[in-house]
Amino acid sequence: MVALTASRLEAYFVREKILTAEEFASAELNAAAQGQNVLTFLRNQGRVSHQETCRAFAFMHGWTYEEIDDRRTISDDVISLIEFHTARKLNVVPLSLDGDDLTVACINPFDNNLIKQLQSKTGKNIVPVYSSNNELTRAVGRFYSTSIEAKQAGEQAAKDLNDQARSYRPAAVVDVGDESNFVNTLDAIIEGALESGASDIHLEPAATHLSVRYSIDGKLHKEPFQPKELAPRLAGLIKTRARLSSSELTNQDGSFSYRYNGKDIDIRVAVLPAVWGESVTLRIGGGEIRELSEIGFGADTGQAWRRSLAQPNGICLAVGPMGSGKTTLHYASLGWLMDTGKKIVSLEDPVEMRIPEGITQVPVNQNVTWEGGMATTLRSAAEVLFIGEINREAIAHTAIAAANTGHMVLSTLHTNDAPGAVLRLREMGLRPSVLGDTMRAVCAQRLPRVLCKCKVVTRPSRDLVMDFKLTHEDLDEVDPATGKSVWYGPSEHGCIECNGLGYKGRLPIHELMTFPRHIRDLITEDVPNSVLAEAARANGMLTLKDDGLLKVRAGLTSLAEVRSHILID
């Protein structure tokens, strides 16, 4: 049998004039010596392309190969012949319909059980053809996306409402149980966000439709509109899951847990009454705590941050706008501090990530006020205190008082840069002498997007050259390893890996300010913020701009992306 398949492979390559008989025989010997089959060897050696490998593999088995590349179009009528869950479960894609003959791409056209299942579900004669597993997976993701599923479920739910209206049935009669199309629509929207790696889902009623947008890597992306009549039903379903009041139109906050791929995902809910209905934002929990080593610090920056955390008292702040990764940094820091055996207590509104053990997490709510919770916490012999956010003078004063009386305090603050944290705390009424005694570290962070592997060399624009003060030598810089320019940007149309966005994922850039004695003395002297910033840079602080440029030169992100996250004076 092995000899037969090998001879068929040789016949194919020779017939297609890809290899001579002698070249194939040599490849067979080399493949055997390396413990590989000849087809894998030829592909790894770059002797044959992916398409040629697939055609040869199909010829060897007596199958027909159908290539499904990213440009392949398939009509909606054909796609709809196989339902979403079947296509995903079986990893199959219908390609064309000729009378009652439905051509279906699959990984094994000789799988009789698969063919019988498809015939039973479609009522068609199945004509199986071969496509590679990678091609099928990408095609199923493209033609059977959760966006399309959500749109179709929403249309069916709207039809249910219209049918109800025509039959004059009361609204309360409409089934909103677990099997209803309303639930299917909401679940498809949530699962689409989870599959795409979104951090937020925005359901925003408009005059003619319900807008659905995902926040992916800090950017909003539009999903298919939902019928406007679904807006109150979906809002009501979300409020029910989050145990919020459905009887009044008012701003509300809550949360619920969503089971996905065997895991419980925490989803926070914010409801705002707006002109066209209730606007609902769903914030998706971040999952497990990251290791501090995974945060993305440079070697020196990470060492300086850990050294600051190890101090017996004081305050360490993470600063930046909303969504810049401040809380993620602090949770990773708390995880590192747990290994030191210290008692840790957190006061959060709300608790963003539930930690199984090692930290006493206290949610601030109607049962536990900030003032009462903080007073009890300070009497609980905690050595490390995490405060979710310093956003009021009372919290600032209490946090600094705790840092001044033997606690290591971690918290977040909204400022543009690290030196600005000192100014913000002074504006909250804290005396310079007290700040000089308690400041240990301030880390400003941003999360620019990571360039996808489809990135292309891109010369910086005139505006970027001026903003970053680049010289001709900078623009001509090349990577010694590749000989290519260090300046990259996203490809125009992206690729399947990044869903056409050109970027995939995010990475942090940092600005870490530490407080040796001479800088603490400057704070006590109440010097202007510009003097503090200059002293911090002289002490070795890399600015967000500096760290961003390092990441750009490493080919990780683009200059334009870094520019969109930082202020340029």
UniProtKB/TrEMBL annotation:
<dbReference type="InterPro" id="IPR027417">
    <property type="entry name" value="P-loop_NTPase"/>
</dbReference>
<dbReference type="Pfam" id="PF00437">
    <property type="entry name" value="T2SSE"/>
</dbReference>
<comment type="similarity">
    <text>Belongs to the GSP E family.</text>
</comment>
<feature type="domain" description="Bacterial type II secretion system protein E">
    <location>
        <begin position="178"/>
        <end position="562"/>
    </location>
</feature>
<protein>
    <submittedName>
        <fullName>GspE/PulE family protein</fullName>
    </submittedName>
</protein>
<keyword id="KW-0067">ATP-binding</keyword>
<feature type="domain" description="Type II secretion system protein GspE N-terminal">
    <location>
        <begin position="72"/>
        <end position="147"/>
    </location>
</feature>
<dbReference type="InterPro" id="IPR007831">
    <property type="entry name" value="T2SS_GspE_N"/>
</dbReference>
<dbReference type="Pfam" id="PF05157">
    <property type="entry name" value="MshEN"/>
</dbReference>
<keyword id="KW-0547">Nucleotide-binding</keyword>
<dbReference type="InterPro" id="IPR001482">
    <property type="entry name" value="T2SS/T4SS_dom"/>
</dbReference>
<dbReference type="InterPro" id="IPR037257">
    <property type="entry name" value="T2SS_E_N_sf"/>
</dbReference>
